[in-house]
Specification:
EC number: 2.1.1.77
Pfam families: PCMT (PF01135)
Enzyme class: transferase
Low-confidence stretches: 410-421
Shape: globular
Strand content: 25-35%
CATH superfamily of the largest domain: Vaccinia Virus protein VP39
CATH topology of the largest domain: Rossmann fold
Bound molecules: S-adenosylmethionine
Largest sheet: 10 strands, mixed
Strand order of the largest sheet: 5-4-3-6-7-8-9-17-19-18
Mean pLDDT: 92
Oligomer: single chain
Main location: cytoplasm
CATH architecture of the largest domain: 3-Layer(aba) Sandwich
Number of helices: 10
Protein name: Protein-L-isoaspartate O-methyltransferase
Radius of gyration: 23 Å
Number of strands: 19
Structural class: alpha+beta
Number of domains: 2
CATH class of the largest domain: Alpha Beta
Order of helices and strands: HHHEEHEHEHEEHEEEEEEHEHEEEHEEE
Helix content: 10-25%
Length: 421
């Protein structure tokens, strides 16, 4: 029976509004994803949360935190869920595994695969699987298999899958995720490389995976066997460097680096306010040796007698004794210059290297599709790996990242700001 209460009317209204916003943003592109997001109520899967908040297009809702207050589980934002559904290109009748449960996304997946398909959702946390089972039952999706397990090993009982959607931040691709995927099947996974998480859709080709698309999204971190900690290096109160793969062997040589006078180098590259810069971050991460992230606490920085200058980008690099970070400078008229601030006894070479890569990104890759990811098993002999711009050795996988060749078309959307013609 259709619910005709005022609350149900409001829910339908909010659903339609969210869908309109996601269509406008280019997240929802297919009629099926649109129809399903218009149809399935979200509030069943977060009954403790205010109705309006459940439909905020870009907000995930934390449903469980650890003792330190970090999010362990959440109802992912409509934007992230819709985009992953689009990336996964799910057809009726498919067999789909979702890693990381909650119920909401499994309900969308059930609608996508229809009565002839099958959905399995796995979570490491009993609190989450209990909730998911309860909510899915209440919403009429009791056919979904809800499994309590560490997804490091997949869910062999219902494999092979046409699609595996990972809804938790991964640092690696364990072998089970490839083995349990049919040939040509898709794995959609928020994968962290060099500290930068991108939700990547990867197609299985034999033992390897080849990316089709990637987009910037944040997800709560993987727990269990696949958990991975970054290395943090605190330079002073409110300024920390984060190394996601290899921390520098000589980290202690950077102590006191911020006591040097900064060298500021103008890259000649720029951004427009609000322009996506995910490919800029990735370009630096794949081309600058010693790449790391820099976290700056704004309040502590402003309180410092030697505050770091420039607008925050979070991108940095180190070379033994020197540090350089990319920063923005407001040029007015919604335009930003990209410059490099460098510290240390001899920072010019590193500063110029980062600036040169910013300029190349601006010339060749700004507004472009971003890089391609190839995933190989870690044991693949070196001679069998194709050439790549960056090769990262994870525990189980070799991640190769390559950029498309520039088209050589000078007419592309490049901003050269006035001081640097
Ligand atoms: C963002 S939530 C999932 C959101 C959900 N798909 C939804 O419908 O909104 C991420 C989940 O991944 C789970 N998780 C973390 N590590 C895991 C692991 N190794 N295996 C299975 N689940 C894991 C967490 O317990 C958490 O519930």
């Amino acid at each position: 029976m259709t619910d005709t209460t005022p609350a149900a009317d409001r829910s339908a209204e909010l659903r339609n509004r969210t869908v309109e916003e996601l269509k406008q943003a280019g997240t929802i592109v297919s009629p099926r994803v649109e129809a399903i997001l218009r149809m399935v109520p979200r509030e069943t899967f977060a009954p403790e949360v205010d109705l309006e908040a459940v439909y905020e297009p870009w907000n995930g809702l934390v449903t469980k935190k650890d003792a330190a207050g970090r999010a362990l589980s959440s109802l992912s934002a409509p934007d992230a869920q819709a985009h992953m559904l689009e990336q996964a290109r799910i057809e009726p009748g498919m067999n789909v595994l979702e890693i990381g449960s909650g119920g909401m996304n499994a309900a969308y997946l059930s609608e996508m695969v229809g009565p002839d398909g099958r959905v399995t959702t796995v979570d490491i946390d009993e609190f989450v699987t209990d909730r998911a089972s309860r909510f899915l039952g209440q919403a009429g999706y009791s056919k979904v298999n809800v499994v309590l397990a560490d997804a490091e090993h997949g869910v062999p009982d219902f494999a092979p899958y046409d699609r595996i959607l990972v809804t938790v931040g991964a640092w690696d691709i364990p072998p089970a995720w490839i083995d349990q995927l049919v040939e040509g099947g898709l794995l959609v996974v928020p994968l962290k490389v060099q500290g930068l998480m991108r939700t990547v859709a990867l197609a299985r080709e034999g033992d390897r995976l080849v990316s089709e698309s990637a987009r910037l999204f944040g997800f709560v971190p993987m727990q269990g066997a696949g958990a991975h900690d970054s290395t943090e290096l605190k330079l002073r109160d409110g300024v920390t460097l984060v190394f996601d793969e290899q921390p520098p062997a000589d980290a202690e040589t950077l102590a006191g680096v911020l006591d040097f006078e900064p060298l500021v180098v103008d890259s000649g590259a720029g951004l427009r306010l609000g322009e996506p810069w995910a490919t800029m971050q990735m370009w630096l991460a794949t081309t600058v040796p010693g790449f790391c992230r820099i976290m700056v606490d704004r309040m502590a920085n402003e309180a410092s007698d030697r505050p770091l200058g420039g607008g925050y980008t979070g991108m940095a690099a180190v070379d033994g004794t020197n540090l350089a970070y990319a920063a923005t400078r407001d040029l007015g008229d919604r335009e930003l210059a990209l410059e490099v601030h460098a510290y240390g006894p001899d920072p010019a070479a590193l500063a110029n290297q980062v600036a040169a890569q910013l300029a190349i990104w601006d010339r060749d890759h700004r507004g472009g599709p971003g890089p391609q990811y190839l995933i190989y098993p870690a044991a693949t002999p070196e001679a069998e790996l194709p050439a790549a711009d960056l090769a990262v050795a994870k525990r189980h996988a070799r991640v190769l990242i390559s950029w498309p060749q520039p088209t050589g078309d000078d007419s592309q959307d490049t901003l050269h700001h006035p001081n640097h013609q």
